[in-house]
Amino acid sequence: MALEDAKNQVDTAITRAGMKGPSFENTFSGLPTFLRRTFTKDLSGADICITGAPFDQAVTNRPGTRLGPRAIREASALQSPDAPYGWGYDVMSEFAIADYGDMAFDYAAPADFPRLLEAHVAGILEQDCAVVTLGGDHSITLPILRAHVKRHGPLALIQFDAHTDSWPDDDPARVDHGTFVYKAVKEGLLRVENSIQIGIRTTNDDPLGISIVDAAEVHRIGPEAVADRIRETVGDAPAYLSFDIDGLDPAYAPGTGTPVWGGLSTAQAAAILRAIAGVNLVGGDVVEVSPPFDSAGITAVAAAHVATELLCLWGWTRR
Predict the structure, then answer these.
(1) For 114-133, how does the pLDDT look when each residue is reduced to its tens digit (9 = 90+)?
(2) What is the secondary structure of 134-151 as a DSSP string?
């Protein structure tokens, strides 16, 4: 997009011809799509899309993550329209990326939400388009995994989180952001031996066989060693990456429902994500951003960067 077009206030989220290329526009105006990508429900020709799941009725503590997708999209406009830093290629120019908007659902029927979200994501995947989802609380990951597993088979899970989310829950009717890993393992959705959790700093006596690099170990061994551990664990398995923003320390992500001190810094998270380039990522999400608890919006900024890194990770093995 030429600078002259920016002066003329062309809203490329609507008017762009095709889905590739940077968008040189005012960051404070226009349709707030993720990274100013094209907003469309027509995914023909799209390689990967962003969608939102604004659901927060499964939280244990503070609500507000229903406002996460909108805040993350707004924060993404602050990123440079040029190639994402540190990757050596421009995912926005090499791949057709769309913003599919948020999933529609009845907020007064929360029990229906998992089924509807699974169908929503499956509908995207059926169009040969990969998807990165903006949450929402962490309960959204379970139906998203179900949709991905139907297409790709059981997946390795790469999870950044303060919590394992593997507490026992054998009631299929319950929707809980702290039990999605337990249910995913019991349903056979995960390649447990290839799955790994990073940044954990709460106690759960049964990790269900999933490898853990807790926050203290991340600080001790450093990002490159953590990335090595991830690559060794995941191997060549198709992988899904779920990034709970509370994996970051509250100093970097105060706007979340269950903050825990001693977490990762944004610099550590960025270094780890870039160092695992080459994993066979088939999808991912960023969850638990609760804007009401962060008046400065720094949590959404961090989440927007994470989502961009997920796009870059996905594209790395498909160039």
Answers:
(1) 999 999 999 999 999 999 99
(2) EESSGGGHHHHHHHHHHH
In a domain, 273, yes or no: yes
Q: What Rg, from alpha-carbon coordinates, does the chain have?
A: 18
Residue 81 is part of which domain span? Answer: 3-106+120-316
Q: Decide if 8 is inside a domain.
A: yes
**Matching residue, tokens 């929360």:** 110
This prediction has a pTM of 0.94
Other C-beta atoms lying within 10 Å of the C-beta of residue 169:
17
Taking each continuous run of H as one helix and of E as one strand, the counts in the chain are: 11, 9
Nearest of 283, 234, 291, 285 to residue 130 by alpha carbon? 283
pLDDT at 286 over 50: yes
CB 164 within 8 A of CB 142: no
> First-to-last CA distance in the chain?
23
Residues 6+ apart with CB under 8 A from 199: 160, 161, 162, 213, 214, 215, 218, 247, 248, 263, 264
User: How many independent structural domains does the chain possess?
Assistant: 1
Q: What is the pLDDT at residue 170?
A: 80
Task: Report pLDDT digits (tens) over 135-177.
Answer: 999 999 999 999 999 999 999 999 999 999 998 888 888 877 7
**CATH code where residue 31 lies:** 3.40.800.10
Burial of 48 (0-12, 13-18, 19+ CB in 10 A): buried
